[in-house]
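Structure ticket #2291
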Amino acid sequence: MYRFEYHRAKDIGDAVARRQAAEDGLYLAGGMTMVPTLRQRLASPSDLIDLAGIAALKGLEEADGSLRIGAMETHADVAASALVRDRIPALSGLAGGIGDPQVRNRGTLGGSVANADPAADYPAAVLGLGATIHTDRRTIAADDFFCGLFETALEDDELITAISFPVPKRAAYRKFKNPVSRYAIVGVFVADFGDYVRLAVTGAAASIFRLPEMEAALAGEFTAAAIKQITVEAAEMNRDLHAGTGYRAHLVGVMARRAVEAANG
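Resolution: structure written out below.
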């Protein structure tokens, strides 16, 4: 690691002030991406502002038809929550399938969403459910949040405080995972809200994206058969040692149909 100054923030205001005062500071949530990046000397921040001690970034409650989850709630917290299991079981299941127990007990909702890894699970739920991202200064709609590869609408010193997930009529998440990292080679989150459907894809391209053609078909008939003939353009997909563009394009359709079947099941 390169040398840096470590700060344990007392509250949200303290965290933001320390970030603004730093030459090149970064927020530290669960550290699941940050710590390996620092160890490999791929980043050299001047300061790290630890958010672990901020009580206002924790908490989980239902209000106005949505579940509001604090940014520092861990994946394990979300997976184990009786409220999440009851109101949005697809979100609970998604959280329980992230990484391994060590990752789930350290990684956080806000850290994952802010990092915007194109193969992460939470961004698919955020976009698939049409969530609202709350920060220290504003709210951001899911459709306006993810901008590209590891890129979001957040300002450099902006801090995610919570995320509100609307409760759907039914929803499901299915992914074809890397057997080692458990990241999504392709993952699909589908949510039926009665008069409209949202469907988000992770792992397949450089950023999380929706498939309006599938959403329209499912709004008319929420069955796997309704989207069986819909394909995605292979040229837009990622290519790596795990899967080529054509394979990923095929998996999008497969995972979408499995997600719909699971939501109906």
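Closing remark: Residues 245-264 form the longest helix (20 residues).
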